User: Fold these one by one.
Assistant:
Number 1:
Amino acid sequence: MFIEIFFLIHLALIPTFIKEFNLNLFQASLIATVPSLAVLLSYIPVGILVDKVGAKPMLLTSMIIEGLAALLISQIRDYLFLVLAVSLIKISSPIYHTSGLSAVSRMSDLKSTGKMMGWHNALGSLGATIGLLSLSVLGGNQGWRFVYLFWSVPVLAWCIPILKSEVKHYEENPGGTEVKGVMLTDFKTILNFRFSLLMSIIAFRDFGTSAISTFITTYMVEARGLSQEVASMIFGLGPLIGILSSLICGHLSSRFGNAKTLLWMVVGSLLSLIPLSLANSLNLLMMAYTIYSFFNNGAWSPIGALVASLTPSSMRGVGYSIYFFTEGMVTTAQPTTTAIIIEYTDLNVIFPIGISLLSVCAAVLGCCHYGFPPSRMKNRKFFL
């Protein structure tokens, strides 16, 4: 929950950064691109460290970095240093997720992984919701810097419960000996066809959804004429509804399968973008964005469970780091690429971009799971 407090705040603040620092859209996109690049470069080393030193030291490190970076951001007045500080706070995310998700997956069997990922993601969505709500409430009265200062205190204080917690280094085998740490030469055991296929599907999905999440508040402010506070409140509906969708989709994953649930979420996301792009009133905009957020956030539970099912337990940290590395490549390239397209068109272009890429994702995922053509489905071996 705490690691996701700042997850969406810097994106929601892009319109504010544009005004306060007198930026064009390309410059403003750097607040999303540069931190994503820093995160991208950290995934693989962090994943190796998790499997070598264990989850607990890495969990503690993530909270310390996040808390100190938030404290630093609250005092910054230069945009360049702001970008660097946000990059630092974003690095805490891969440190947590590779260690946290590997620990969660080791606490469950394959049948219950979906449900546990659902609870895990629900608390993450709760954190992101609290962060955006505090931006609207505290930021409106005290300024956006106070939000970072306020949350740095409980984040750093949470290091104490982590120190007292018990998180096993590696799960033990029946003989009681520990599983050996990962070697660089063992990457081939993870990068098989099925896992690579899943990463390709995730890349298409993330590029489409990131185009929406990065510029949706800017779209609401500039194209729909809403205030920054109202746009942030609507944006906050995303992680709020994500609490419910994570729990529901975690249950669906355990009951109907991870790949099938992911397909439903992708199709639901692309279909809900159509009314979102056409909404011309505040109520319709809120309703459409709520529906889109349900399907978009619901995808994380089956994705997390699929990654766990396709990686050996002793290399779970590396498996998740490769997954997040794939996401990182997309989120690094997407903001600048989309910003350039917007400069030559307008902000409405984010919707055809999202719909097109999600359609490709759904098509590939459907073919991989059901086989192609569908009439021969019974004779096909499911890839996912």
Number 2:
Amino acid sequence: MELGIVLGSALAFSLVTWKLRVPTALGQLVAGILIGPFGLRLITNLTTIESVAEIGIVLLLFVLGLELDPFQMRQIGVGVFVFSLVEIGVSFLFGWFAGIILGWSAYHSFVLGCVVAVSSTAIIVKMLHEQKLLKSMFGHMLCGALIVEDMFAIFVLALLPSVASASPPSILDLVWLVVRGALLVSLALVVGTLVIPRLIDKIAHVELENREAGFLVSLSIGLAMAIVAYVLGFSAGTGAFLIGLFTLGKRARFVLEKILPVRDLFIIIFFVSMGMLIDPSELLNPALTLPLVGMAVAGKFLGSYVGAVLSRHQEIAGDMAFGMTPRGEFSFIIARGASSSEIGRAIIYPATSIVVLSTCLLSGVLQVLRKSQKRSLQMVP
């Protein structure tokens, strides 16, 4: 019953946002607000939905790792790297300063800076694909920056459990963190390069008689490493991302083909469930909304513009600044990882929802205006 309500509302609002040419994630968030405990109260028990959303996060990061090649990542140009460092750094500082303005603690200001610093890979790549700009210099720069941002987000997720402690970590704590991190990366590397290729090659033969085998093994790979990461004190998504990253070539394509359909289902549920946690009254609070939206938009625009100029792409600096505007899945994933306490949930979720909703809406409006401008220019004789 609850799953039917979630999917039905997500479909309806996704169609509306598609018609309006704004990101579908915005429609799914609005659907969650409407059916959740702060809306029509069609769903009030979020325990099951949140559990499913957690699986969606793991699968999202697993797929992201599968789509990246660690050897190709070395080919990211210096210009992309400079652009990424500048726009991430400036955006983070603006987000951190917004937390200070709101009177938040150092930890919550740090988390807000991370939430604001990371753009939405899903929304931006879809935008580039629709506008046929993926292979342009503009698309190359944005996609390269998104890869760097994703790596930054994974690093933040790995650090959050340690940063969340009330007391500063000791030298021994830092050493233990490094040891656990090295162990997790080593396990993912060994399993991804030695175990998984042999396992998938065997399953590929068995699948001729049992088609479910490939799907179950593909799903189990990501979930198993997620459990390992959780046991070692990291976020489950970090482990899933790493094992996906070290699964290469045709084996990565095999796994990706098996889990993409179910991944999309869980991601829809993830965005709807995030919407259920949003209290619409918070969106109407100017004391909270104005600093968040102002700093989020200004920080990303300024950071991207300056980064584009420093990377010698001043001719497309404005387009790059507007293109990096929307925040989405990683902002919510970071917020979710940082909101284990009731205080964190009360602070981080409203802030993240305001940032994501406003930047998604702004991104959609900018796309519509840009298309209208292009049509007007084409009509000029």
